[in-house]
Amino acid sequence: MKKFVLFLIVVCYSAVNLFSQPVLTFTKNGHKAGTKVKMVKFDYDKPGKAGDNQLWNFSRKKKLGSVENEIDTVTYFYRGWFVGDVVVELKESNFRFFFDTTRDSLYKIGYSYEDPDTIVRFTSPVLSFVYPLQYKQSANGVLGGKYYIDKKTTAIVSGDYSFVADGWGDIILPDRTRVEDVLRVKSIENIYSVDKDDNDTLFVFSNISYKWYNSFIRYPVLTCSKTDLKTKRKKLSSKSGFYQVGFTVNDEPTDYRVKTFYRMPDITFIYSLDYSYIVKCRIYDDHGNFYHVMFEEFQFEGDYERVVKRFTLPEEVIGGKIVLDILDYDYQIVDSQEYPLNWE
After folding, report:
1. How many C-beta neighbours within 10 Å does residue 235 have?
2. Which residues neighbour 272 within 8 Å (Cβ) at sequence distance 6 or greater?
3. What distance in Å separates the CA atoms of residue 141 and residue 126, rounded to the nearest whole number?
4. What is the mean pLDDT of the chain?
5. How far apart are CA 184 and CA 210, in angstroms?
6. Residue 259 three-state SS
7. CB burial class (10 A; 0-12, 13-18, 19+) of residue 202?
8. Which DSSP state fits 6?
9. Distance (Å, rounded) from C-alpha 246 to C-alpha 175?
10. Residue 5, SS3?
11. Between the CA of residue 113 and those of 35, 110, 117, 273, what are the distances in Å?
């Protein structure tokens, strides 16, 4: 009997421990157009430990004057960089980041300095997040791209990236505000740039960042990073830290069906093309309203099997449907498949 009670206590503790961990969703934490967040810079040193139920205390960190970093997002549409439309531009400090958010995931498409004529476009986009994001979830991959100056390709970009949700717990900000149930995400990015003509290495860039997110606060409540840049003439290294001030809680209720929905099998479309056609995939919400285009591609004749990963679908469309249309050159529907986005 004692063993049974002890087992029950362990099970209950494990369950409470599991459900207390924060889970990030696109609805509550994804980049949304028009949101402004003020960040204050502080004297960054070390990010603290990874693991379960941590307390990260930054209350003794020195604020660096009244320096503020403003993050702002506005909606733009960029076509042809990747499958789908890039619908968000995120401006952070002196950089602009572009994200493809068409599949409930954040893919970094490109970035530029304040000079709009200097830009990197990723041909192999960097996956920033896959929602829902939870403790111990990770991803990694390679990146590739082209470096443009005055719209001309001057260099080839390659590298690798990784991210992992390596800890969760509570955090105390430099202004002594305590935020409970935060998830820490560690990101590593390495970028190498080689001259297009003579294959000479132009620069090597590496960044390690830590960001703390709360399930109900959009954008990280605190960020710290270390950056190294090496060129032919110089080597630079810098550390920085920012935290939110005056943040607001996004208390939109998360659909109770979300966890079940993401545990269901991925969606597979199988089809054959007798001729070359346009294949278009659209999502509709549970009210029958058009949500967005997942992809639209020209495909040659042949047999195809297209898999839509369940985790790439936004929770806003649970109960809706995915429609795969095969179109001719006049944009008339030749064939069509529907898949209901049920959750049970």
Report:
1. 9
2. 302, 303, 304
3. 8
4. 79
5. 7
6. helix
7. middle
8. H
9. 11
10. helix
11. 21, 11, 9, 44
Q: How remote is the C-alpha of 183 from its chain's centroid? A: 14
Residue 184's alpha-carbon distances to 181, 216, 236, 310, 312, in angstroms, are 10, 14, 26, 24, 21
Q: How far apart are CA 127 and CA 140, in angstroms?
A: 8
C-alpha distances in angstroms, 7 versus 4, 12, 13, 169? 5, 9, 10, 25
Q: Please tell me what DSSP assigns to residue 146.
A: E
The average pLDDT across 63-92 equals: 57
Q: What span, in angstroms and rounded, lies between the C-alpha atoms of 116 and 104?
A: 27
Looking at per-residue pLDDT, the higher value among 94 and 129 belongs to 129
How far from 228 is each of 11, 160, 190, 204, 242, CA to CA, in Å?
45, 15, 10, 8, 18
For 20, the 3-state DSSP assignment is helix
Q: pLDDT tens for residues 29-43? A: 876 655 677 888 888
Longest dimension (CA), the chain: 76
Q: Are strands 51-57 and 152-172 parallel, antiparallel or unpaired?
A: parallel
CB of 302 closer than 8 Å to CB of 272: yes
Residue-wise pLDDT tens digits, 263-300: 788 889 999 999 889 888 888 888 888 777 777 778 88
CA distance 89 to 31: 9
Ordered DSSP codes for 297-326: EEE-SEEEEEEE-GGGS-GGGTTSEEEEEE
The strand pairing partners of 208, in sequence order, are: 188, 226
Cα–Cα distance measured from residue 80 to residue 67, given in angstroms and rounded to the nearest whole number = 37
pLDDT at 111: 64
In the block, which residue shows the tokens 């970028």? Answer: 191
* Local structure of 54: helix, strand or coil: strand
Least confident of 197-211, 227-241, 297-311: 297-311
Question: For the chain, give me the number of helices (H) and strands (E)?
Answer: 3, 19
